[in-house]
Protein backbone atom coordinates (compact mmCIF):
# COMPACT_ATOMS: atom_id res chain seq x y z
CA UNK A 1 0.00 0.00 0.00
CA UNK A 2 1.49 3.31 -1.08
CA UNK A 3 1.42 6.59 0.78
CA UNK A 4 -1.42 8.02 -1.31
CA UNK A 5 -3.54 4.88 -0.85
CA UNK A 6 -3.71 5.22 2.95
CA UNK A 7 -7.25 6.32 3.96
CA UNK A 8 -5.86 9.03 6.24
CA UNK A 9 -3.91 10.68 3.43
CA UNK A 10 -6.91 10.35 1.11
CA UNK A 11 -9.07 12.25 3.61
CA UNK A 12 -6.39 14.89 4.15
CA UNK A 13 -6.05 15.31 0.38
CA UNK A 14 -9.82 15.60 0.06
CA UNK A 15 -9.81 18.36 2.69
CA UNK A 16 -7.03 20.19 0.82
CA UNK A 17 -9.01 19.84 -2.42
CA UNK A 18 -12.16 21.16 -0.71
CA UNK A 19 -10.44 24.27 0.65
CA UNK A 20 -8.64 24.86 -2.68
CA UNK A 21 -11.91 24.78 -4.60
CA UNK A 22 -13.75 26.84 -2.00
CA UNK A 23 -11.43 29.87 -2.06
CA UNK A 24 -12.32 31.12 -5.58
CA UNK A 25 -16.03 30.73 -4.83
CA UNK A 26 -15.71 32.86 -1.69
CA UNK A 27 -13.61 35.41 -3.61
CA UNK A 28 -16.33 35.58 -6.26
CA UNK A 29 -18.88 36.34 -3.54
CA UNK A 30 -16.75 39.24 -2.31
CA UNK A 31 -16.22 40.52 -5.85
CA UNK A 32 -19.99 40.55 -6.41
CA UNK A 33 -20.94 42.16 -3.10
CA UNK A 34 -22.58 45.08 -4.91
CA UNK A 35 -23.99 43.19 -7.89
CA UNK A 36 -27.81 43.45 -7.89
CA UNK A 37 -29.50 40.08 -7.47
CA UNK A 38 -26.26 38.16 -6.86
CA UNK A 39 -26.69 35.23 -4.49
CA UNK A 40 -23.73 34.15 -2.39
CA UNK A 41 -22.38 30.67 -3.14
CA UNK A 42 -20.32 28.16 -1.22
CA UNK A 43 -18.82 24.75 -1.87
CA UNK A 44 -20.58 21.81 -0.32
CA UNK A 45 -18.23 20.26 2.23
CA UNK A 46 -17.49 16.55 1.93
CA UNK A 47 -18.94 14.41 4.69
CA UNK A 48 -15.72 13.69 6.57
CA UNK A 49 -17.61 11.91 9.37
CA UNK A 50 -18.96 9.43 6.84
CA UNK A 51 -15.44 8.97 5.42
CA UNK A 52 -14.05 8.17 8.87
CA UNK A 53 -16.86 5.71 9.58
CA UNK A 54 -16.36 4.02 6.19
CA UNK A 55 -12.61 3.68 6.77
CA UNK A 56 -13.07 2.06 10.17
CA UNK A 57 -14.47 -1.01 8.48
CA UNK A 58 -12.27 -3.70 6.98
CA UNK A 59 -11.57 -2.80 3.36
CA UNK A 60 -11.54 -5.36 0.57
CA UNK A 61 -8.15 -6.21 -0.85
CA UNK A 62 -7.62 -6.52 -4.60
CA UNK A 63 -5.34 -9.54 -4.87
CA UNK A 64 -5.58 -9.86 -8.65
CA UNK A 65 -5.79 -7.25 -11.42
CA UNK A 66 -8.86 -9.16 -12.67
CA UNK A 67 -10.76 -8.41 -9.45
CA UNK A 68 -13.04 -5.41 -9.29
CA UNK A 69 -11.45 -2.51 -7.49
CA UNK A 70 -13.27 -0.92 -4.59
CA UNK A 71 -14.84 2.41 -5.41
CA UNK A 72 -13.40 5.48 -3.81
CA UNK A 73 -15.43 7.92 -1.72
CA UNK A 74 -13.48 10.90 -2.89
CA UNK A 75 -14.87 13.12 -5.61
CA UNK A 76 -12.56 15.07 -7.94
CA UNK A 77 -14.89 18.09 -8.07
CA UNK A 78 -16.98 19.64 -5.34
CA UNK A 79 -20.53 20.90 -5.73
CA UNK A 80 -21.13 24.65 -5.64
CA UNK A 81 -24.38 25.50 -3.89
CA UNK A 82 -26.26 28.72 -3.19
CA UNK A 83 -25.59 29.92 0.33
CA UNK A 84 -28.58 30.49 2.56
CA UNK A 85 -28.88 34.05 3.80
CA UNK A 86 -27.62 34.24 7.35
CA UNK A 87 -27.96 37.98 7.53
CA UNK A 88 -30.17 40.30 5.60
CA UNK A 89 -30.75 40.60 1.89
CA UNK A 90 -30.12 44.01 0.32
CA UNK A 91 -33.03 45.77 -1.37
CA UNK A 92 -31.37 44.94 -4.72
CA UNK A 93 -31.66 41.18 -3.97
CA UNK A 94 -27.98 40.66 -3.12
CA UNK A 95 -27.39 38.55 -0.01
CA UNK A 96 -23.58 38.89 0.28
CA UNK A 97 -22.32 40.01 3.68
CA UNK A 98 -18.73 41.18 3.32
CA UNK A 99 -17.99 40.51 6.99
CA UNK A 100 -19.28 36.95 6.73
CA UNK A 101 -17.40 36.27 3.50
CA UNK A 102 -14.12 37.68 4.84
CA UNK A 103 -14.50 35.49 7.93
CA UNK A 104 -15.07 32.45 5.71
CA UNK A 105 -12.02 33.31 3.59
CA UNK A 106 -9.87 33.62 6.72
CA UNK A 107 -11.13 30.33 8.20
CA UNK A 108 -10.77 28.58 4.85
CA UNK A 109 -7.15 29.74 4.50
CA UNK A 110 -6.33 28.62 8.06
CA UNK A 111 -7.92 25.20 7.59
CA UNK A 112 -6.14 24.78 4.24
CA UNK A 113 -2.77 25.52 5.86
CA UNK A 114 -3.54 23.11 8.71
CA UNK A 115 -4.47 20.32 6.29
CA UNK A 116 -1.36 20.99 4.22
CA UNK A 117 0.91 20.83 7.29
CA UNK A 118 -0.83 17.63 8.41
CA UNK A 119 -0.28 16.10 4.97
CA UNK A 120 3.42 17.01 5.05
CA UNK A 121 3.77 15.62 8.57
CA UNK A 122 2.11 12.31 7.67
CA UNK A 123 4.22 12.05 4.50
CA UNK A 124 7.41 12.64 6.49
CA UNK A 125 6.47 10.01 9.08
CA UNK A 126 5.62 7.56 6.30
CA UNK A 127 9.07 8.11 4.74
CA UNK A 128 10.79 7.67 8.11
CA UNK A 129 8.91 4.41 8.67
CA UNK A 130 9.85 3.22 5.17
CA UNK A 131 13.50 4.20 5.66
CA UNK A 132 13.43 6.84 2.91
CA UNK A 133 15.66 9.86 3.56
CA UNK A 134 13.66 13.01 4.31
CA UNK A 135 14.47 16.60 3.48
CA UNK A 136 15.29 18.20 6.82
CA UNK A 137 15.77 21.64 5.26
CA UNK A 138 12.07 22.57 5.06
Descriptive overview:
By secondary structure, this protein is mainly α. Helices cover 48% and strands 4% of the residues. Helix 1 (7-31) runs antiparallel to helix 3. The two termini are 26 Å apart.
Mind describing the biggest β-sheet? Answer: 2 strands, antiparallel
Q: Which structural class best describes the helix and strand composition?
A: mainly alpha
Q: Radius of gyration in whole Å, from Cα?
A: 20 Å
Strand line-up of the largest beta sheet = 1-2
Tell me how many strands there are: 2
One letter per element, helices H and strands E, the order comes to HEHEH
How far apart, in Å, are the first and last alpha carbons? 26 Å
Shape by Cα distribution: elongated
Oligomer: single chain
**Number of DSSP helices?**
3
Quote the average pLDDT.
80
Strand content: under 5%
Helix amount, in percent? Answer: 40-55%
Spans of at least 5 consecutive residues with low confidence: 69-75
- How many structural domains in the coordinates? 1
